[in-house]
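Write out this protein's structure.
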Amino acid sequence: MHLRTPFTIYCTSTLYTIHLTLYTIHHPIRLAVDAAVTVLKVDQIVMSKPAGGPKPRQGPNDPDDD
């Protein structure tokens, strides 16, 4: 099998080996990038929310003062 690429591939098994090698490099990198993007999106959502909890009650109607 001959292909018009920067290098010439002469047999199908070599083509399969090159394809398999490129896949094993590309797939983990793609998964890592997807994970990093997801973490950054979640971080952006968390950072956009206001900090702190509920406001403390004031006045004589506070049930904890009993």
